[in-house]
Structures are given as C-alpha cells and as structure tokens.
Amino acid sequence: MKRKPFAALVMHTTKIIIVQVILLVVLVSSTRANINSPLFDRSITGVVVNEKGEPVTDASVTVKGTTTGTVTDRSGAFKLSVPDGQVVLTISNVGFVLQEITVTSNTSRVSVRLLRDDNPLSEVVVTALGISKQKKSLGFSVTEVKGEELAKTNEINPINALQGKVAGVQIDMGGASGLFGNTKILIRGNSTLRNNNQPIIVMDGVIIPNDILSGSRDFGNDLKNLNMEDFESVSVLKGSSAAALYGSRAINGVILITSKKGKSRKGLGITVSQSVEVQDPYRGPDFQNEFGGGTVGAYFTDTRDVNYKANEGWRTKVFPTDPATGKPYIDRQIGRELENWGPRLDGQDVLNYDGTPTKYVAVPNNFLDVFQTGLTSNTNVAVEGGNDKSTFRLSYNHNAGQGIVHGNDMTKNGYSLRATHQINKFLSLDITTDYNTFEGFNPPELGGGSYGKLFTWVIPRNYDTKYWMQRQNYISKFGGLPNANDLNERNKAPSLDYWFRIGENKYRRKEEMLIGRIALTATLTSWARVVLEGNINNLYTTNETKELGTGINFAGGSYALSHYNKQSNFLKWMVVMNKTIHKDFEINASVGGEKQSMQQTYNAASTVNGLIYPGNYFIANSKDRPSASGGLLNKTVYNSLYASADIGYKDQLFLQATWRGDWSSALTYANGTGNNFYNYPAVSLSWIFSETFQLPSWISYGKFRTNIAALGNTAQPYIINPGFALNGYVNAGGTDYPISTYSASNSVQPNLKPERKVSKELGAEMRFLKNRLGFDVSLYQDNTFNQIIDISVPRESGISGTTINAGNLQNKGIEIALDGSPVKSKNFEWNSSVTYSYNQNRVVSLSAGLKEKNLSADVFEISSWAVEGKSFGVLRTTAHSPAFQAKNSSGANIDNPNNGKPVLTWRADARAAFPVRSNVLQEVGDINAKFRGGWNNTFRYKNLSLNILLDAKIGGDFALLTYRYGTHTGVFPNSLKGRDAAHGGIVWKSAFDGETYDDGIIPDGVFGPGIKVTQPNGSQVDVSGLSYQEAYDKGYVEPTHLPQFNYRYGSSSTGVADYWVLKNSWISVRQVALTYNFSPKLISRAKLNTCSFSLVCRNLVYLYNTLPYQYNPESNNSNNAAYSGEEGFLPMTRNITGTLRIGF
Amino acid sequence: MTKYFKSYLYSLGILLLVTTSGCKKDFGEINTNPAVVVVPDIKYLFTYSENSIVTYQGGEWIWEGMEQLLRYSQHVTSQSYEVSSNVNARYGSFYS
After folding, report:
1. Does B30 reach chain A within 8 Å, measured CB to CB?
2. Do the chains contact at A573 and B80, CB–CB below 8 Å?
C-alpha cells in the first residue's frame, strides 16, 4: 500500500489541509481584530425564533430610524448596543414578516417570534450564474429544494434525494448497482439522440459533470463525491431559458447547488450530526418453492447426466442414481446449464452436490441469503464563524459503511472550506476549497455476472446459499475453484465462482476530487460591480482489480491498475449592474465572459495470461509481457461571452433577455476553420397580474410567465479531425509488426454544425386564501434540431457510418405543482404538496431517407430506437412472435377465432410447440412513462414533525431479461401450472414410448405455415393453420411437456420476447421521516443552540408495482438515456436512518 | 476611490483581452487527437489489411470466405443477421 504514489498523495493532502488551516487562522484572527467597540450606552441581547421555536439565523435587527444594527447568529441570538431610553427594534429576514418591537429602557433581554411570510412576492431563489433573484421576476420555472431536506435522506447519490420532489424531473434509481451506483435523471425528457441526456450539476459556479455508466460494475459518477450537508439549497433550472446562460453543457438542464457559507455571529458555531443508516434487503422476487433442481430431459445438444434411467429421456422430476452407492443425488448438470425441473421438494434423502447426504428441501430465501444488512455511518462536523467583514465555514464529513452486497464497502471523506472576506470597501473575496476522497470496493456485477442472472438462470430452489458461500465450501481442496469436470473433485456444487469472486477478488476504486474556487467582487459604484472568478475541478481516479486464480493451486488470476485524471479549469469575468432609472423602472444587467477547458488523461496496465506468483498483485507478476496503455483521452475548450438584462416595471412586469455565445474547440478543424461559434438567445417575461388588477380578496397572488430560448451543443472532441491510428501489433514469425488503420469508422459531414435546441414555455402561478393554497403550472415544448448523430451506411462504401447534422426531437409536456396548508394552528400544522408531470417525447424527423436509429442500448435481444413519428426509446426486437392471421385462398385476410394468437412452431426433438420468432423487427414497447407524480405531506405537532412522501411513475416499458431466464429454467411460479397433475398438468400415455406423463399442456397459439408433425408411427401430418388445441383434438399432437415448453419459450436460441417487456408502473412510499426538535428551553439549559433527532425511512414499500412477482421496479441497470431494463437485479431495499444533530 | 477604480478597470481590461482575444486561438490544435497521424506509412496499413483478412472468423481466406459462402448457399437472405454478420462484416474486414 505505502508505495510512493501514496506518500505523494499524503503530501498533497497535507498541503491542502495546511492551506486550509492557515486560511482558518487568518480568518479567525481577522474576526477578532474587527470587533469594534460601540459607543452606545447599553446593550440588549435577544433571541429570534420562528413559529416552531427554531432559531432564525441571519435575521437583521436594527434600531428603527438609525443605521445601527446587527444580524442574528446560528442560535438566533443577537446583541445590540442601543441608546438609552425607549427604542423600537425592527427585526426582518427573508421569508419572514417584518416585525417591530418596542424595548423599554429597563429591558435588556428580548425574545422575538417571527412569522413565516407566505407572500410569494418576497420569495427569493438562486438562478443561473448563482445570482439570487426574486422569484416573482422570473419568466421561467425554477424549483428550489432546501439542502437540509436533502441531507436528511442520507442518500449517497444526491440525485436519489430529489426523487419525487420536483415536477418535471424524472428519476430512475439504479437499484441493481449497489451502495454508490448511478441513478438516471432527466429533466423534461430526452432532448438529444445521445446516450447521456442528464443535466449537469453546478455547485457555486463549478461544473460537475454527470456521466453515464461504462463498464459492468457501477462505481457511481462524480456526483457521489458531493456532501449534501454542505448544500444550502438546490435549484432545478428546468427550462432552457433558465439554463441558457450555462451554454453547451446545459442542453439537458442544470441543477444548481449553492453551498453553505459562514454567517456573521458571535463566537464559533459548531454543528455536529451523526447518522446511522441500516439498509434492509427485504424482498426479492417471489420464486416458486415446490420443485427443485433437475434437467428438462434428454436434450439434443447438451449432455444429460448418464445416471438417469434409460426410459427417463422425457421424464423430469426424477433424480439420477449414483451407481457406486445406489443412492439418488441432486443433478449438478455438468456440461450444461442448470435448470429447475427436478422432483417435488419433499425432504427426500439425497446426496448433495459434494456427495454428502442431505435432505432435498426448498431454501425459500436463498436469494435474500446472498445479502447482508447494510450499515453506514455518516458524521459531519461544521464549524463556522464570522463578523461583519469575514465569514468562514469549515466542514468535515466522514461517511463509511457496507452495502447489502458482501464486500461492497465504501469510505468517503469530505473537507470543505468556504470563506468570504470584505477586503476593503470595494473588494470582497469568496473562496471555496473542497477536497473529497472516495474509496469503494466491489460493486455488484451487472449483466452476465449479476445475482439476478445467477438466481434465475443457474441456481435451483434447493440451493443452500449460506452454506456454499462459506470459504471452505467454495474453494477446492486442490486450491482454486472446484472443477466439476475433474474426476478427483468431489465438490461439484454449481456457481461457486460467484462466491469465489465475492470472497477472493477485490475491485477497488479510489477517487479524489479537488475543487478550488476563488471569486473576487469589486464594487465599482453603488449600482455596478465586477466579479472575477476562477475555479478548478479535478478528479483523480485509481482503479485496481485483484483477481485470484481459479486454477489448481490458484493458478491464473490477474492484476490491473489504471489511473484516470479529469481536469477542468474555468475562468470568468462579469460586470453586474442594477439601477432604478425612473421610479417605475428598474434595470439589472450583466455582461461576462468565460473560458472553460477540460481534459482527460489515463494510463492503464495489466497482467497478461495469469500471475506468476498466485495471490500477489503487482504488474511485474505477469506470466506474459504485461500490457500497458495511456494517453490523452480528450480535450475541449470553450470560450464564451454573455450578457443579460432585466427590466422591471412597477414591480409587476419583468422582462429578461439573455444572450450567450460559445466558441467550441470540438467543432474546429485542424486548420482552425469550422462552424465553431453558436449562440443562445433567450427572452422571458413575467407579469404579476395580481398587482395590476384589483382581484377578489381570496386571490392572493397571480403571475403569468412565458419564455423562449435557444440552446446549442457541440460535437464530441476529435471526431471532425480523424487520421491514422496505430492498432497494436501483429505477430508473424516471432516478430511484432505494428499495424495501423484510419482512426474513424465513420465519415463526417463537411461543415458540421452545432446542435440547436429551441424551447418555449408558458406558465402560471396563483395563490389563494391568504396564500394557504396555490398552484404552479408550466406548459412547454422543446425541439432539438441539427443533432450530431451517427447513421449507418452500406458497408461496401468502406465505412460503417457517417456523422451528420439531422433530426428534430420534440418534448412537449405539462408540469403541475399544487400546495396547500389544510390545517394551520399554533400547535398543529399540515402542509401538503402534489407534483404531476407529463412529458410526450416525439421524434419529428431524423434525416432524409432515415426513419429510425438504433440508440445502442440493448437489453439482450431488445433494442432501443428513435423512430420517426414515434419516440426516443421505442423498444424493438426480432424475437417477438408474429400474430396469426387467417387468409383465404387469394391471400386476403379473413375472420377466424384464432386470429391474433401467437404463431407456433414445432420441434420434434423436444416434442414441443412454442411461439416462433418473427425474425423481423417488431415494436414491443416504449420506455417513456405516461406521467410521474409525487405527494409530499408534512404534519407538525408542536416540536414533532412527520413527513410522508409518496411518488409514482405510471407507464414506461421495461425489459426484464431475468424474468425470461427464470421462465426458461422454471424457478418462477409461472412454471407451476401444468407441472404435475396436481397443478393441472394433462396426464397421458405417450404413444412414442409408452410412458405415462403428467406434465402436459396445450400451448396457446396457431401452427405457422408448413409445420409438419412426425407421428409415433413415423408418418407426418401437416398442422399448419390449426391451433394447438385443434391439432390435439384431432389427435395430431400429444400434449407438450411443460418443461420443454418453458425451456424453448425462454432459451437464447428460440425464446420469444412476448412476455418479458413489461409496463413498469409503481407507487412508492418513498419516505417517512419523523423529526423531533428539542424545545428551546431544554436546549438553552443544555447550553446548546440546536438539537434535533430524526428517524427517516426511505423506500419503505411499494403500494403498487406492475412488475411480476415483486420484482424491484427500480432495477434499471444503467443511466444511459435510451436504456430501460435489467439483466440482473438486487432485492427491494429499505433504508432506515437515525440522525442526531447538535449545534453548539 | 479613483485609485482603486483605475486598478479595477485595468485588471478588467486585461481579463477581457485574455478571454476574448483568443476566442478560437489554438482550437485546431486542441481538437486534434495526438494519437493520430495525418500522413501514414503505407506499410502499416497494408499489414493491418492483411491481418484483418487472415484473422476474420479464424481465417477468411481458408474456408469461411465470401466466395465459399456463396458457393454453398443458394442466396443470402435479407434477414438482418445474415446481412450484418455474413456480408457486411466481411466487407468491413476487406475495406477497412
């Protein structure tokens, strides 16, 4: 471990900490130095609290009629020197009703209770470029969520914390990826034909990319490194108008995070919070537990165990018998896939997979047995302080624990310092340094190596997971993994490689994220200021893979080490002006420019063909020459200029216009030419009509807003400047020769243009009954044109595709947010809000001659497409069965009771009929949800509050590959019907072999054209056009054995997609949170500022779930925009977090 | 006041120059992958083509060749698998 890079890292970390400490010391000392001595006669102390008795920080307290004043500290306390005699104090704060109190000459201590100001006229939100604006002046939709509300969820991925809270935001949790995996988020639908349509995150002006998953283990993207305890507020800028000032990278929207900063206060404020979270994997899919492992029967390609009796070729539900001992044993199915067509689980005495005697019983929880209770601990300490000149806030966060998958561990450390300082009358400084480290291990494998696949494809219902997971049972006595084909190996248990990988291999990622930001604001005049800002955001990633050899004496194995550096720099200048030019007109304007540059470099090395010394992990321990690669992955630079102006008329009509121009390196040809400039104009209008007209008194507030904006986007770096790349070496006659070819398989349209998005929005907000009830509605339409897409061209041209500007992708929708306070009294309060979002996605056009495009997001045989006239994310497959249509002799369609049934085919080697694949692309679904909604309720009784959040997704298709696997192998309850006479199986004596069977079924469907069935006497009967029932009634076919049917219905070669692309609708009890704020009296007695305890239960239960057998509906395997499905899942997991928060 | 004001104006002016004068400076170079060359040495391209033909499906030139394929199949169906795997992939290895 402690090699040189580590030492360098320690040095690096130490340096950062030293710098932070110096800053801290400077700030604290300057705080001290700046306490000026008042010349007043007496002082008043006091405390300001809200309706709930919680302290109100930052409230301004002034002596009326003077300029003397102060602000309250974190505990809501203030101290103010006032003249002798009776004075009036004015106490105000954003979001509260201004209050005046009279203080008599002999009062020295006051207590003030501020009432919340529900008046929407005074609401302030953070908008683009971090500028706070009055919400009433905005002509676009912005939803703000308090950081505190998000931190309470204790989610590692901040996106999960937003689930259900914001209308127009679509979140699909990646429930298959473990403790710190990705979650897909879209704002107002998929707006480009690319695979990443996720909004970017901007924290205090620092852009944090939101990448999509690559690879089969999900370590989560950059967002997991953020610490929600540092969030003051999160603004979701939904429309393009809101985001237009962020340029190219904002084409999919922006989520704006404002971090906390210190407040001017007396002494230091220390807040400590400690959370403990328990993750409970409470329910997996429901399996059947009546029948256990065994083969489907003798089968034409795979070898069946030789110890079945000769007359058992078609018989299931029997054990093979060990010729040596004469005892029955559980079929290990060596040399073929494992199936679950064995005998009824009745506690029979059998030999286990390792030859030891055991009982043949179901292990109903063998899937849940894989998992453990997850446990994480999250500690946060924040120290803040400040005076009228300087503030600082320093926080440290430590979040560590284990997920529900063994070995899926994590340690996160976050150091954050934000300091502000007023250097002099004109100049102020705002500095942030964040250093976050993440170390994560062993996220569960997705796809082929997933537990979902294991338990549906391989492991039968009698498999005792807990036993086989133990090290002594998955390691061979010869070392390595037991090899079932080795005659000397007694342990022939299936799938031990899974437990071997969990127990012996380490997949590790370490990330260090360093964010440094400095902003200098110069106040030029009373109405103009200049902001100069620079920031860096660097992410250093180390990946390490240690795999133990599975051969005898642990031969084999591998070691790989790679480093990725993602670096971005940002420089910005901006001049901000605001001036009231006439008593009715106010103007706010800004001009600015910025330069962003990003680059990614990497190096990777790995062993080749196994390790020389097993279990020793270093690159030189490679059997063959190790492989190494590295270099610059990409580099992009943007230069930009922007300007914005708002004009307010009489505080009721607001017009805002913004413009931004980007010069992008990625659209520049090697000779410096290219269409590399594009701009984003946006105009928005807000009209507070309740100020203009005299409305009835029950209408408290009314606003219309509208906007139109254009956005642009650039190409991927390098694609327009291809050349010749080296492709490694080829060995001939013992010599390596370099080989080289053209670097791109695509040609690129000459004069490639930037992408263009045009968005329009119309909205209204109204509040009624003294602001007790309100709504906010938005209607929008976004179109993205000239998309830079790859289309395929005939291979004979020598290229596989071409990159062109094409397409028009449209999202149209409506977002509604309702909120109200049905009950509001001193002790009891009930606030309720509902969000609803409907988005219709449509591919208006692609390109001349191109009506559809494969989006490269396959779930096995299901592919995801953009289809003209339909949507982005149409699911298609060639593996669906065609529907039968009867025709007359001239080929015209005729009525027939069998019309619409699946067309069947016949396999003589299986004596089974089953739906046939159409082998033409058929549409089988659409990933887009019909609508999503959330219902958030907060009940408060005195100091106790209860929050209940429900959220729902209705519609949207999802491909469940493992459901197909489980149907194929017989582990799901859908394999019971017809399995024996007791389950409705037809009992018949087969004319083929004279044996009697009880597992017969009549498949629903109609035989396709030209199907001939071989009879027991060898003759053939044409059954085409007959339904199976008709053919059976006529005596042409015997019943199909259920195992043979299911096997064919789901196999890789003949399975159909008829039943595993399903509507994924759900209603989830997303959160139930109980918070108790200790009473101010108790708190002050304990000499504390704040003290609260909360208990939060996330993902409690699904009230509605359309997936079969309690499948986890949030199993999406990727945050790729076009992907909707799973090739593996984890159980439904609920998280329970207890948090104690104390402020000194 | 004026002293401060002047220095702010100067620094602002410098910054403006820095960020705007070079709107597209070096963009051509930035957008060129350092791992590609424009003028290749033809011998490495030839080796690549040779290698693709030899290694495709275990030896295109021995038994699974296009010519062989067409000899024993009556027609190549328009089914997507047939076109993409048997025909296009071969063109890919011949022409790239």
Report:
1. yes
2. no
Question: What residue type is assigned to position B52 of the chain?
Answer: S
pLDDT value of position A670: 92
Q: Look at residues A635, A775, A660 and name the one whose alpha carbon lies nearest to residue A716.
A: A635
Question: Parallel, antiparallel, or unpaired: how do β-strands A1006-1007 and A903-907 relate?
Answer: parallel
Quick check: pTM over 0.95? no
Q: Do A740 and B40 touch (CB under 8 A)?
A: yes
pLDDT tens digits along A385-407: 888 789 999 999 999 999 999 99
- Per the listing, tokens 């490495």 go with B44
Residues near A735 by Cβ (< 8 Å), separated by ≥ 6?
A: none
DSSP state of A1039: P
Residue A1089 DSSP symbol: S
Distance from the A303 Cα atom to the nearest Cα atom in chain B, whole angstroms? 27
pLDDT on residue A724:
93
Q: Give the whole-angstrom CA distance, residue A190 versus residue A192.
A: 6
pLDDT at A265: 74
Coil vs helix vs strand at A71: strand
Residues of A in contact with B95 (CB under 8 A): 795-796, 798
Distance between CA atoms of A708 and A931, rounded to whole angstroms?
24
Nearest chain B Cα distance for residue A922, angstroms:
13
SS (H, E, C) A104-141: CCCCCEEEEECCECCCHHHCEEEEHHHEEEEHHHCCCC
User: Are A905 and A1032 within 8 A, CB to CB?
Assistant: no
Dmax (CA) for chain A in angstroms is 118
* Nearest CA distance, A221 vs chain B (angstrom): 25
Instruction: Show the CA angle centred on residue A482, arms to residues A296 and A555, nearest 5°.
Output: 135
A593 vs B19, B44, B89: nearest CB: B19
Put simply, the answer to whether B28 touches A798 (Cβ < 8 Å) is no
Query: Alpha-carbon torsion A65, A66, A72, A77, what sign?
Result: negative
For A351-491, where are the alpha helices, taking DSSP H only?
Answer: 451-453, 465-468, 471-474
Q: What is the ipTM of this complex?
A: 0.78
Nearest CA in chain A to B25: A672
d(CA B19, CA B22): 6
A993 is written with which tokens?
Answer: 């072999």
> How close B48 gets to chain A, by Cα (Å)?
5
Backbone angles phi, psi at B91, to 5 degrees: -60, -40
**DSSP-assigned beta bridge partners for residue A836:** A816, A933
How many CB atoms lie under 10 A from the CB of residue A50? 17
Query: Is the pLDDT assigned to residue A760 strictly greater than 90?
Result: yes
Query: Which residues make beta-bridge pairs with A471?
Result: none
Tokens of A232: 């003051």
Whether B28 sits inside 8 A of A878 (CB atoms) is no
Residue A4 confidence (pLDDT): 45
